[in-house]
Specification:
There is one protein chain. The chain is mostly beta strands and 281 residues long. The protein has one domain. The protein contains three helices and 17 strands. The strands form two sheets. It has a 15-stranded mixed sheet with strand order 9-8-7-6-5-4-3-2-17-16-15-14-13-12-11. A hairpin with a 2-residue loop joins strand 3 and strand 4. The longest helix has 20 residues. 37% of the residues are buried.
């Protein structure tokens, strides 16, 4: 997740502001009852390969999601003209139906790893704590489950298969990095509502289509297609960027395969080497 916050009184004031201000912040809204953990729908060692881009297909980036365990993912992102790969390790809490811990790093061409950011849920205070370099910060959620849009909705993607009724509307909260050099590195962006709208043929598959809208995606409206057979999102199109380097968000499934952990590590290294070789031409 490329998230690629001095004295005691100010800390208290900042914390109160993030938690909604006042000694007794309101309880967050919750649609957690719309989900039920279904381990049979998770296939360990499965890899889902996506292309992330702008809506017009520009600035393509390969995003690959490896299912390490029923509660763990690893994600690699290799972008054209970039000489390192983003590498995220995410742990899932199947009571919150989101990732409760993430570590983000980059893998350099020589194989060295640079840790960049960490993300952890603090359930007691209803917030996530983030460290980016020497900066630290927190953001309280106002809707459960919440997801990180900048993580390409990967946690939403992995949680979707656990919906009890995939045709019932539900709401999510969205927490994102601020991408600012100064100030808090993370904030609660807002809520988003997801509504089933029908079925479409995507890539030769019968997928269920959904409308997503709300302040969590900048007040815009987008479309999500989900394949109930694979359990993965098949395609996402939202006219709101999840990273300042893009102008909108499109995520499209390329394929699914099985890999051993060793094969996954080799795949990440080879993908970076191939991208670098292409860049040198």
């Amino acid at each position: 997740m490329p998230f690629v916050m001095n004295r005691s009184l100010p800390v208290v004031l900042v914390s109160l502001a993030l938690l909604g201000a006042g000694p007794d912040p309101p309880r967050p809204a919750s649609d957690l009852d719309k989900f039920r953990y279904q381990p049979s729908k998770i296939r360990v060692n499965e890899v889902a390969h996506y292309i992330k881009s702008n809506l017009d297909g520009s600035k393509p980036t390969r995003v690959s999601i490896f299912v390490v365990a029923p509660d763990r993912l690893e994600v690699s992102k290799v972008e054209k003209d970039v000489n390192d790969a983003a590498w995220v390790r995410a742990h899932f809490d199947w009571k919150l139906f989101t990732s409760d811990r993430m570590e983000a790093a980059v893998i350099n061409l020589d194989g060295s790893i640079e840790e960049r950011a960490s993300f952890a849920v603090d359930r007691a205070k209803g917030a996530v704590d983030v460290t980016v370099g020497d900066r630290k910060g927190s953001a309280a959620w106002k809707q459960l489950p919440f997801h990180v849009y900048n993580f390409d909705f990967t946690s939403l993607n992995f949680a979707w298969r656990h919906l009890i009724d995939p045709k019932a509307p539900f709401e999510i909260g969205i927490i994102d990095p601020t991408f600012q050099k100064d100030g808090p590195p993370i904030f609660y962006r807002g809520d988003a509502r997801i509504v089933y709208t029908g079925e479409d043929e995507i890539h030769g598959k019968t997928c269920r289509s959904y409308r997503i809208s709300g302040p969590g995606i900048g007040g815009t409206t987008g479309t999500i297609w989900w394949d109930p057979k694979s359990g993965w999102l098949e395609k996402v199109e939202i006219p709101f960027r999840d990273n300042p380097d893009w102008n909108s968000f499109k995520l499209e499934l390329e394929g699914i395969e099985l890999m051993t952990p060793a094969a996954w590590k080799k795949y990440v290294a080879d993908s970076l080497a191939k991208a670098n070789a292409a860049n040198a031409k």
